[in-house]
Structure formats: C-alpha cells, structure tokens
C-alpha cells in the first residue's frame, strides 16, 4: 500500500472471524518487482457451493471466462487470486496460465481443475508467468493459514487500504457467518481498476439459491457504485458456502432463514461496495445519489448513474460547489423520462430547486456546510412515478488525474 | 477571453467574408458584471430559410423549445444570442424572457416573433433579465454591422478563443458561401458547456433540404465530438440560407449542386466541431479515434465514443502513456459486439496489439514519439465487419479539474 491512505478509509480493518471450512494462505509469487504477498490461495472443504457475478465487458479476461465455465458446476474447492498481473488481453497464453494454475491447485487438493476458481488483477496485456504462478501456489499451499486482513492485503494492487466486512444471520436456528474481502478501484497505469470480491460463509446453500441471492445483492450494491464509469475486463465477485454451520441447506425462498440469509448477503455486499468507493482514486468525498419519483426503478437507476458518472457533477462536489445546474444537466442527458418542471433537487436535507425553479428564498449556507463534509447526499425527485434507486460514487479530483495521467509506463 | 489560450487553438481567426442578406451586430446587455459584448443580433433578409439541430437532453432550455417550435415554419428573420446566462431551468420566467426577446426583435424588423431564433448560454437557474435583454437588443439594432470575429467573441462564455470557419460550393453555376461561428466547451461553474453554432449561407435552399443536409452534417461532426460526455441543456446548431446567391433553390438531391452543397456544409460543420474540441477544458491533446471492422457503423460509433469518453483513456493520453489496455477496456465496456481475439489497436501509424495479444517485438519508441505530439490518433479494428466511425475528443488533465472544481460559486 504505497499511495497515501484515502481520507475516506475506515479507522481500522474489522475483526473478521474464521469461517469453518475455509483456510486462506498467501505467498510471494513476485508478479512485480515488489516484496509483498501477491498470490492468495483459499482452500475450501469438500461440499462447498459457489455462485458468482462477473464483468459485463465484451472483452473479459481468461480468468472471467474460466470462472463462468466453472460456475456452471456450482462446486468449489479452491480460490486462487493473483495481484500485479491481470492476465487480460493475452490470448492463448493467458488461457494456458489459468489452466495451469487450476491444474496445479487441483493436484494439491486432489480435486478437479473445474473446482478451482481463479481471478487476477494488475497489468494488462502481459501473460501471467506460469512459472511464478506455480511456484507461488506451491509456497501458499505450504504456508500456514493467514488472517483475512493478510488475504485482503495480498489481493490488493494500488488500493490504499485493505477491505473486509462481516455479518451474520440466523438460518434454521443456527448463526451463520458471512465474511468478505474485496479489492477495488485503486490503479496505476497501465493497470486497471479491477474489482475482485470474495465472500465466504459457513451456511449450507444450494448453488442455485446462492446464485439468486448473490445476483439480487449485486443489483443493489456492486451494480450501484461507480468511480469513473470505466468497466474492468476482470471484475468478479464470487460467493462460497461451505455448509459447515450444519443448517438444513437453503435452496428456496420458503426455507427457514432464507430471507435472513439474503438480507445478510445484501448487507455484506453493500458494505464491501461502499469500501470500494471509499478507496476511489483521488476520492475526498463519498457521495450518495438517491433518485425518486422516476417512471420505474430501472429508469431511476440510469438517471442516478448518469449523475454519478458526470465529470461536471463530480468536480463540483470536489469543489464543494452547490452546483445543482449540473445535476439538472446530468438528469437531462440520461435519456430517461424527465420533466424539467416537476424536478426537485436537494443537497443533504436542503431542497434547492423544485418545479423547474430554484426554491424561493434559497439559502446556500446549509448546503455549503453540507458540502464541506466528506459524506455528501444528493437527492433528485422526478415527480413522475414511484421508481427509485440509490447509487454511490466519489468526487473527481486532481488526485485522480495525478494517479492516472502523471505517469509514463 | 480570460482563461489562458488553449494550446490547441489555431494561429488566428480566419478571414470570414460577409454573407449577402446577413447583418450581424453586437451589444453589451451586461448579463454578468463584465465589460464586453454579450448580446448578438443577426438580421436576416426576408426569404431566409432555416434548419436546426438541438440537444438530446430531456431537460432542454426554453430557448431550445422555442427554436424547435419556430423551426417547424422553416423561415427566419433574426437570430439573438445571449452569453452569460443560459436561462435554463428557470420555468415560466425563462419562457417569458424568450418570448419578450422574440417580440422585441419582431417589432424592430417588422416580422413575426416566430421568425426570431433565440439561444442563450451561461449560468443556469437564473431567469434571463428581460430588461437587460431588451435594452441590449435595442442597442444591437442601433449599432453598426460588426465583423464575424466580433460576433464569435460575443457569443462566447469561457471559450479561450473565438471560433469561425468558411467554405464555398458551386451550386447551379454560382459560388455560394457558407460561414459559421460556434462557441463551445469552455465553462466555469456554475455555467455549463453549451455548444451554440450558427451557419449562414447565401445559397437558396428549401427548409426541408437544408434540414436534411444539416442533419447529415451533424451526424458526422457535432455528434462525433465529446469533451467530457456531459450534454448541455442548451446545445443548438442553426443554419440560415438567405438565397441571395441567386441559384435555383436547392430542394432535393437531384438539383444541380445539391451534392456540392451537402459536402460543403458537412465540411464546415466538421471544421467547427473540431474547433470546439480544440477548446475543450484543460485540453492539451487533440485526439482522433477511428474504429473500423465493427458489425455496423452505429456499433462503431458507440465503441468510438466509449473510448473517447473513458476517463482512463483520456488521462493516459494526457500522460503520454501508450496504454492500449485502457483502450481494450473501453471497447469491452461499450456493450457492442467485440471479440478480444480479433481486436487490433494502433497509436498513430504503429500497430500495438492484434488478435488478442501485443504484437510480437512491440517497440514502444514510435508510439511514445507520437504521443508526445498534440495531435493523437488511436485506431481500433474489431475484425468483425465493415462498420466504421471516427470521433474526436481531447485529453483529461489537471486543467479540467482546476476549471471545474477549484472554484466556489
């Protein structure tokens, strides 16, 4: 972690408990000329189920293609994460590297290669060196179990802090634990902002129900955050369920604890997603954008993302400028139903504009005070229907430009 | 023009000839506390036809709504442009201001208010002061004819240089002139990057054919430029044809000179569009992005804009970094058909990657040399079909952040 700590970082890494049936290890594969652990190997007990969501990019990495294929089987015995080399856009050589990693891990664990999930993040266009990966994997397998914090550090690239979260739920009369680590949107050219998130639970969950719950959680968390509108070729979130808690396996909505599990998974994903935004490159403000009164939830989501991705909105927040005109602009460009004359906008708790006009007697003082803080809320009501959505982003600052432009590869 | 001159500015304002039937004037309406002309009044002889394209924003300014309505009649006697106040998001008071301006100009000229076209750019959310507009209009009407350069300056807000272009065509055996002025993407919070472009020709052209030709020209020019992906509530391009050249009026593709006129209009629009990019906020590089081999032209256009709008691509160019991985990322996130393993990418004339891999023996030296210049070319071939498109943008620099964030309204 060489960059200055994000001012939005939490005070400390949380105390994450062990998850029965999950044993993380880290090792130095030395994918870059650095002296830190950059390979993470998580052993999973037999019987572990898995679900996942991956990037919508049309040019996904071979790791993403491998995981998509392996997810169709719904079972997992290992996760291998490489940091420092994304192995993306590397053609057949990149595919060979993923296959070699899966084969090597399978030999160690006595399982099928398709039971091994692989994710990589870092430089693009350079095939992952198979010799380093295999040596790193062997070292990780021989290493003692590590802490979740050590694993969260090892999967990071230019993140400025390790990211983890935990929650619990009562399922079938038993307390199950859900733990997650994630790495996000720190990047140094020519690296990319890959989001890799991994969730581990001791609950027993069928692959199909786990997939349903993860997809639902994803829609309200990872799909609702944006740092700069760019989409990695490698984004991957995987959820593993070992079943060691001994509950009757969750397989449908009618099962005891199904709702609690889904709620806990959604909560965990939201915690992890917010941590990614809090480490957005150059971020100094954490911004929540809530859109209400849209024609549909989908329309609200698109409008909210249009605001969140607007460079003019993001720079205005960076400048602590109550520039609601830019919010109007971003609503207008979203291409969704909107009526200027029914639009209302607030910053924090202060209504700034409504019915196509700035509010009578508008006093900027409380808005200016809100914008001086680091937690910013923008509310937009379209006055058209019941559709609503909330998304999160960060401001756009000189820090972003410095990280991404003041550099020569 | 108070900001430092864009390093991409042309050496001088071009020598623009008068256009028969068009008389520009400027005056000080003092929409802001500045001592400069900020109201432009262009008188047009009777018989002038008009066509226009306006913003796709769902929250357009009252000026845009007024022009859309007036365009349905196809005739024009005057253009009024206000700089310093966009009059957008101002509700009924904004509409009243536009109506008052059109009525006042109509009295001066003895025409209908619907013959008067109005455009405004500047601060948002503040109704245009009718008294200042009327006094300014009276002053402009009383003033002597001004030069095109004076008009180009008067329509500007935070542009760092005035923008104009000229071309000619042979139509029906006569040389017709097409002259244009435009203001673009300089902005200061809480102002917005409104693009206002005005084209004047002495050719005789039916409103319908003028609209067809302008729409075609727009598709390959103004619709192919982006500075920061944000869309103004006020973007407007209007074309006026006085008919003073005496050619048989152009009304269809089979008329003599129709092709020449269309080509000239397209050329003029492209010149004007490029000038807007060259004054992009903080721009230090003019970037051409050419996409070929897509499944369709539309698909190519969307992919090209995805690259042009990517903050990571734009910061890489600012940093003179041959970061083709970010181009792959931007192709992938466009959501259009793309195959990683058939993708080829070049910077300048140098092929960097093809068939899913960096080219064998890749030498970055010529690419680095190309990126040190101020005119950058990125080529992407998808290897899928015949679809192609070219768009233009600028880099994303500290200058953009300074202009848009280092400010408190």
From TrEMBL, chains A, B:
Its main location: cytoplasm. Keywords: Acyltransferase, Amino-acid biosynthesis, Arginine biosynthesis, Autocatalytic cleavage, Cytoplasm, Multifunctional enzyme, Transferase. The record marks 193-194 as: Cleavage. It holds the Pfam family ArgJ. Pathway: Amino-acid biosynthesis; L-arginine biosynthesis; L-ornithine and N-acetyl-L-glutamate from L-glutamate and N(2)-acetyl-L-ornithine (cyclic): step 1/1; Amino-acid biosynthesis; L-arginine biosynthesis; N(2)-acetyl-L-ornithine from L-glutamate: step 1/4. SUPFAM superfamilies: DmpA/ArgJ-like. GO terms for molecular function: L-glutamate N-acetyltransferase activity, acting on acetyl-L-ornithine as donor. Substrate binds at residues 157, 183, 194, 281, 404, 409. It catalyses: L-glutamate + acetyl-CoA = N-acetyl-L-glutamate + CoA + H(+); N(2)-acetyl-L-ornithine + L-glutamate = N-acetyl-L-glutamate + L-ornithine. The record marks 121-122 as: Involved in the stabilization of negative charge on the oxyanion by the formation of the oxyanion hole. The active site is at residue 194. Its EC number is 2.3.1.35, 2.3.1.1. It is found in: Cytoplasm. The keyword Transferase applies. It comes from the Bacteria. Catalyzes two activities which are involved in the cyclic version of arginine biosynthesis: the synthesis of N-acetylglutamate from glutamate and acetyl-CoA as the acetyl donor, and of ornithine by transacetylation between N(2)-acetylornithine and glutamate. NCBIfam families: ArgJ, PRK05388.1. Belongs to the ArgJ family. This is Arginine biosynthesis bifunctional protein ArgJ. It comes from Sphingomonas immobilis.
